[in-house]
Amino acid sequence: MGCGKKQEKQYPQREDITQSVYASGTIKSKSQYEVYSKVSGIIESILVKEGDVVAKGQTIIQLANAAQSLNYENAKQNALFNSTQSNKEKIEQAKTELELAISKMDNEASLLARQEKLWEQEIGTKNELDQRALSFKNASTLYKAAKLKLDDIEKQINFQNSQTNRSAAISAVNMNDFIIKSQVNGKVYTINKQIGELANTQSPIAIIGDANDFYVELQIDEFDINTISKGLKVLVSMDSHKGEVYEAVIEKIYPIMNERTRTFKADALFVKRPENIYPNLSAEANIIIQVKNKALTIPRAYLVEDTYVLLANKEKRKVTVGLKDYDKVEIINGITEKDELVKPE
User: Fold this and answer.
1) Biggest distance spanned by C-alpha atoms of the chain
2) I need a labelling partner for 53 at 20 to 30 A (CA). Which of 74, 80, 166, 267 fits?
3) What is the pLDDT of residue 306?
4) What integer is the mean pLDDT of 329-345?
5) Pick from 71, 333, 32, 57: which is nearest to 212 by CA?
6) What is the C-alpha to C-alpha distance for residues 334 and 248, in angstroms, rounded to an integer?
7) Taking the model in full, what pTM does it have?
């Protein structure tokens, strides 16, 4: 009746040990993105269905745009009305008036020069000379006015032409906002709207991504991020592929922490991806930090205060700990394979 529960005993063993970091993950398609509309509008037509393969630039959804179409037509008409070609007659008329003004000014200049020579020969009157000088001055003024008129007409037409062309271009861009196109070559995985529903700038309309290239988006705890580096091996398992483990490699580590989840994001590329894989499947991953062959190990449960073990002779001995996994821990020094250990109660 006085006998207590018998303590478990074990000798240290030589075996391989792997140190790894656990991370939860989500399967993502390469270039996967959520499709948003740039404007609000009623969905007029959906030109693809879920599972369709689409090309970059292909139209997938059309929004109703009757009002915008009218605005675009008005903008084009204004641009045409104010174009240089449409105002060619105004320019030609102003040029003709300038040519007449030049001709008249040249004629008045010739008459003034002739009158001045006659005056030098004391022929004619001072009044006749003054009249010729005044006529030349008036002709010069008419020339300057005609030239200014031509310059103003050309400037005004060029300005209006440029302004209305820009308005037409802006209207054309706005028209394109009602046509939603794929930004990548890929597959339509989800369509969240139906014809007749309102599309807005806040809710995604669809999800599109690569049809064949997938990776694992990992969430790594902030306490483990310093042990992770590019190129590390990752073992991936998924509920959708029970009993299977797939190898991947850390390809990218994002250098900012999610303050809400206190995790860092990293991308792992499959060495060989599983068949029948889909975006947003959940995954679990073990990132291999280090592997050591034939290490001296004991069960983690046999450690006391993380740095001591209990020998069968009741001695409490300090040990140096190395790699750890979920079940066992490497002992670098302090005990040998011949030391019998007891499990702490």
Assistant:
1) 160
2) 267
3) 87
4) 92
5) 32
6) 37
7) 0.59
DSSP 304: B
Residue 148's CB: how many other CB atoms inside 10 A? 12
Residue-wise pLDDT for 128-180, tens only, equals 889 989 999 999 999 999 999 989 888 887 877 777 777 767 666 667 888 89
Q: At what angle do helices 126-176 and 66-81 cross, to 10 degrees?
A: 160
194, with CB counted inside 10 A (0-12, 13-18, 19+), is exposed
Q: Which residues pair with 296 in a beta bridge?
A: 14
**Whether the predicted pLDDT of 75 surpasses 70:** no
Q: What distances in angstroms separate CA 67 from CA 2, 46, 62, 304, 331, one per listed residue? A: 94, 20, 14, 77, 77
The gap from C-alpha 42 to its chain's centroid, in whole angstroms, comes to: 26
Q: Which residue has the tokens 């006659």?
A: 118
User: Residues 249, 251, 257, 259: is their CA dihedral positive or negative?
Assistant: negative
DSSP-derived pairing of the beta strands 233-238 and 206-209: unpaired
d(C-alpha 149, C-alpha 265), whole Å: 67
Q: Which residues pair with 221 in a beta bridge?
A: 263
